[in-house]
Specification:
about 600 residues; Rossmann fold; six-stranded mixed beta sheet; alpha/beta; elongated; single chain
Length: about 600
């Protein structure tokens, strides 16, 4: 489908979205646009009537103003209505733009929230998302306004053309035919602008990346230390210079089109004036006809230009809206089941012949892996980087679906559960945990926000359980202290943030607790304090612990050793040490590093 067809197919979809957003405001925009574009023709007729009435009055030898007062009053009324319609149009458009901004942005966010994690790890999808976020709400509201303006201005052109036809039909045809190549040229230019911007998506993301390396707080220390800022600025400037050069070519094409149309329309206008003046001198036209012709001939090219700009810009906006349609057309591959999730406090997990390969990769991360985790058991996963530990727990949480094999929770394949209900049964402390720009209390309550945002007592108990209550009590406003440097003035150390993340995970009454490197940012004392209470924290829950610290995993009921996506050893710490195998060698290496 070519870009013009894409734009046309977008119109009905966009109008439906706009009508659903606010039908009354949409109707107001349409009505005022049509009204204010019909009134110029009415004013032109009033001017003609006024001129002819004055001429007739003078010819009769009378010098009374009474004959022209009704015409003046009619003109005054039309002018007031035009002013009102113009200002109401601005008001309705501003209101509708705000409504569309909320609705369209919400639709994008709500749809993105349903998509699978692997989409966000795919650079092609990131380009689609970047294009969909490229001021789509602004393009949407502009599209609606412009398409309505184009339709309404077309009404004005038709009404003016009808008047002109009665004076000189041939000239009318010339003016209207002049607008067709002008519109086609502008549409070609609009399509070029869109295609150019579409091709820049990845480079636009690169410019954002280089800016972040120089301006983002987390990147600044290493960027400064390695003196990378000049390099990143140079790369940023090179990309922007490329955009500038492309834009310059587009600007020159636009200038040529506008100059050509302006010259042709100006020449046409004066040629038409000469012809009409000749007709008037021959007595074929009245003075009123000449006046109305001049009024229409001056306004018609501008109206044609307005329609061309409105229509081509609307079609260009439609191309940008198609980016949103492209995003909304992407459907999640992980679909909900309909079986209720078991209400047990401690879930049993059975993994059967599991194989998984990341999209775009050929090497499986998990290779025919099978494992049973007993209800209430504490299981540790160990292995070198890339062994598949984090991938396994992400499959258990159904961030991905396996290529083959299955994962059962209490005897039921997790693909048969509604995804949201499954997630309600799982607490997860991620290795790259979030540091929310919120109060200390909210950072904890987010783990079960529907119940805990207004339950400060329960939040404080969770803070005590995670060992973060003393830290919070020393903050200026305690649990109400805003954390994070983006909007607040106070932040925590890495280890303190991690304790807060653990408290957040404990907020959910989950059947399965997953901790992915939960002590990676803790010092030795904090780690000892956390895991000395590990049994209490995970009491009644099945728990999976991933850690490279062997002093930590030794407290688990059972340890699973992974390598290259397979389980190579399994047992308690004592049993694995007695095997003198892979686990024992890793443990000895760890101990030598500590000594």
């Amino acid at each position: 489908m070519n870009s013009f067809q894409t734009s046309i197919s977008t119109i009905s979809w966009a109008f439906k979205i706009t009508w659903d957003t606010n039908s009354r405001l949409t109707a107001g925009v349409v009505a005022t646009a049509i009204l204010r574009n019909l009134l110029p023709a009415a004013l032109v007729l009033v001017v003609k009537s006024l001129v002819n009435t004055i001429s007739e009055t003078q010819s009769s030898g009378e010098q009374l103003i009474w004959p022209i007062l009704p015409v003046l009053m009619l003109g005054l009324t039309i002018s007031i209505v035009e002013v009102l319609s113009r200002n109401l149009s601005v008001y309705f458009n501003e209101r509708l733009r705000d409504e569309i901004d909320i609705d369209v942005s919400s639709r994008i966010l709500e749809h993105a929230a349903t998509l699978d994690l692997f989409y966000f790890e795919d650079p092609r999808f990131q380009d689609i998302m970047a294009r969909a976020r490229q001021n789509t709400a602004g393009h949407f509201s502009q599209f609606i306004t412009r398409i309505i303006d184009a339709a309404a201005n077309s009404v004005q052109i038709i009404s003016l053309a009808v008047i002109l036809v009665f004076i000189e039909p041939f000239i009318t045809v010339i003016f209207l035919l002049l607008g067709l190549p002008y519109m086609l040229a502008h549409w070609k230019l609009a399509k070029l602008r869109y295609q150019t911007e579409h091709s820049r998506t990845s480079r636009r993301r690169w410019t954002g990346y280089y800016l972040a390396q120089v301006l983002d707080r987390g990147a600044i220390p290493e960027t400064r230390l390695l003196n990378l800022a000049p390099l990143f600025i140079r790369k940023f400037s090179a990309l922007m210079a490329g955009f500038r050069n492309q834009n310059q070519d587009i600007y020159q094409k636009g200038l040529s089109i506008r100059i050509t149309f302006s010259i042709l329309s100006t020449v046409g206008f004066y040629a038409a004036c000469a012809w009409v003046a000749y007709q008037a001198l021959q007595g074929s036209l009245t003075i009123g006809d000449v006046v109305i012709f001049l009024a229409v001939a001056v306004r018609l090219p501008k109206s044609i230009e307005n329609v061309v700009f409105a229509m081509t810009n609307a079609l260009e906006d439609a191309l940008y809206i198609s980016n949103m349609m492209e995003l909304l057309a992407i459907k999640p591959k992980i679909v909900d089941g309909f079986v209720p999730v078991p209400a047990t406090r401690h879930a049993g997990i059975e993994i059967r012949d599991l194989t998984f390969t990341y999209p775009g990769s050929k090497q499986p991360v998990l290779d025919h892996l099978s494992l049973t985790i007993r209800p209430g058991e504490s299981l540790a996963l160990v292995g070198e980087n890339g062994a598949g530990k984090s991938t396994l727990v992400k499959l258990i949480t159904r961030f991905y679906d396996p290529d083959s094999g299955s994962i059962l929770m209490d005897g039921t394949d997790i693909r048969e559960f509604p995804v949201r209900k499954l997630h309600e049964k799982i607490s997860f402390v991620f290795q790259e945990f979030r540091r929310f720009e919120a109060t200390a209390a909210e950072n904890i309550a987010f783990g079960n926000w529907l119940e805990l945002l207004d339950a400060p007592g329960q939040v404080e108990k969770l803070a005590q359980l995670a060992g973060v209550d003393d830290i919070i009590s020393r903050l200026p406003q305690g649990f109400d202290t805003p954390l994070g440097r983006m909007f607040g003035e106070h932040t925590l150390s890495e280890g303190q943030w991690q304790k807060l993340a653990i408290a957040r995970a404990l907020a959910k009454p989950a059947s399965l607790l997953i901790l992915d490197e939960p002590s990676s940012s803790l010092d030795a004392r904090a780690e000892f304090e956390l895991f000395s209470r590990f049994r209490d924290i995970s009491a009644g829950q099945t728990s999976i612990l991933i850690s490279h610290r062997f002093s930590t995993v030794s407290i688990a009921d059972r340890i699973v050793v992974m390598d290259s996506g397979r389980i190579i050893e399994m047992g308690t710490h004592q049993e694995l040490m007695a095997l003198s195998g892979h686990y024992a060698s890793l443990y000895d290496l760890h101990q030598r590093k500590l000594s």
